[in-house]
């Protein structure tokens, strides 16, 4: 176990190093970047421009800059944002809770919708409801998530009015401007983004849940459980369902990168102040300390989640051992 | 029967001439014929194929179906709602949306096809090599695959497309679509590689491959003449789903403003400024997105049908 974790840790460090080199190289090769703002500014002399370049460390060759960046990172310094001049890690720290809140709630609703419907669909295979559900699931998987978000805004924040006037549901931000924080206000602001994310991803999970359940139902141990006279609902919950859920756990772990990707769309469309929007703004301004920090943290989260999936796997499925 | 014949190369085996045909004897059918029959029985797949064909015709022959230009601005016709003269209305610059949707489809579908082809080419090659040679090459290639899987894809795509745009290469000017298509493909081959690797590993153990090794066939011949044709079914299904995914990815990137640049229309970038216009001109946001949705759902239904039709076990039963 300890040996396994150590090996996975070393692999993760190696993977992150490679990813950081590639991304750092790419970002540094982008001409202009932060200096664009000064290039055409008549108030800035050639000398000032050169001094600014030196100050941002842009005169060194890329490998030197990479090593410096890595050295600072080892001491916990992610560099300062070129735009806000604040440490990049603080910018992320401010936004990360908002993203995790949105993602967490969305994931909860995704699974709460997908798992029961997937099971129902599998148990009633080839029924009318199964046909409707699988067709809807395929449609959901084909829906461009950002367009679905735009439609939600058109319907619920533009067309439909609340009884007291004003839009039925707010279509942007985390709270009503000028109002003190209250939970109900936050929930109202979360309804549309969470609906957008969870309905679209529930479609995919529902199909997997159905397939996984169908596979398990025909296994010998389920027949044995029936054969020894267990009531059908016990056969399904205790023998079939528990095994059918195993692949879903892997999928949730492996899908995290896509969930983060979804954060970019949700946060841009609904002006949600999270990491996705921070990244979007940083990309527009080539603010590379922030870009690097977000990319590295997300890559690390993806790797950590894949290790976690392996660990959970061994905990719930005694047939699998870590090797 | 150890070797499954590939859908393309197979033809119906000649029925024996000597024996009189009995009533019980079924007419022999090739894998391709059986797969076609199976596919045509999948109702939603056939509907999907029909819809996709209609879209393809409208997109390819776009100039025949409209009297407007996709890029000329007619400022006095801004924000016209859908009407007899402008079926899908007009946008913020007075351009006819019906026209732009079909011209935009040219780019969106081209990007989808090119990125899918890129992903399939890389994935198939890596999967074949990894699965056939095993050992060190397999270990290295699978680590590379894992690294690519750990990349937050959309984020890196945004960085990469910014990079391509700012470089301002003569062969990758703003508005050209294929650099974006290649970049999407380069970040999407991993599932194909794993799929092909798995299939190759099991095929390598089979007698017909062993026999080819015995008679001294070169590795290249074994890989491309004996193994590849037997992996085609899996690749075709993966390609269909990959095409759908690539269209969605391009539209998302272009929506965010990091994909194909205006004024070249694509289904994604047509949506990018619509959020400010939603109160006054919701049709500008509805039609381009609807095209993405309809196209992708049609392709996904076709993929479902192909998966059933190309499953060799199902064919043996049928």
TrEMBL record, chain A:
It comes from Levilinea saccharolytica. Belongs to the binding-protein-dependent transport system permease family. GO terms for biological process: transmembrane transport. Keywords: Cell membrane, Membrane, Transmembrane, Transmembrane helix, Transport. InterPro entries: BPD_transp_1_N (IPR045621), MetI-like (IPR000515), MetI-like_sf (IPR035906). PANTHER family: INNER MEMBRANE ABC TRANSPORTER (PTHR30465), OLIGOPEPTIDE TRANSPORT SYSTEM PERMEASE PROTEIN APPB (PTHR30465:SF0). Residues 96-313 form the ABC transmembrane type-1 domain. The chain crosses the membrane at residues 12-34, 100-123, 144-166, 186-205, 244-270, 290-313. It is a multi-pass membrane protein. This is Diguanylate cyclase. It is found in: Cell membrane. GO terms for cellular component: plasma membrane. The keyword Ubl conjugation does not apply. PROSITE patterns: ABC_TM1 (PS50928). Its main location: membrane.
